[in-house]
Design brief:
Elements lengths: L9 H36 L4 H5 L18 E2 L7 E2 L7 H8 L4 H4 L2
Antiparallel strand pairs: 1-2
Length: 108
């Protein structure tokens, strides 16, 4: 199927592009589904289960509690601003260090 794109206006061209991308996604999903079926069939033919090969439930990973961490540092200029010492340093912390303060001066 040949489409003469020179005769299409802007809206028609955008519509064609979006339809082509949608079809491309459909084809990819179909291919993934067929591949998944082949893999399951191969595993079953060898006498194993999916869990035997890949372990546990799919996508299940042990998670940490993710609880909050007590703050370690406090902004002397604004006591409401605290930092736990994890992640990217806050701007106020970097500014205080540049001003000559030490980390132990900002510790709670």
């Amino acid at each position: 199927m040949a489409v003469d794109i020179k005769n299409l206006n802007h809206n028609q061209l955008n519509d064609l592009i979006s339809k082509a991308q949608a079809r491309q996604n459909e084809l990819r999903k179909e291919k993934v589904s067929k591949l998944r079926e082949k893999i399951h069939a191969l595993i079953k033919a060898e006498g194993y289960s999916f869990e035997d090969i890949f372990g546990g439930a799919r996508g299940a990973k042990p998670r940490r509690s993710g609880g909050t961490v007590a703050p370690k540092y406090r902004n002397p200029a604004n006591p409401e601003q605290v930092w736990s010492g994890r992640g990217k340093r806050p701007r106020w912390f970097n500014d205080a260090l540049k001003a000559g303060k030490k980390e132990k001066d900002l510790a709670i």
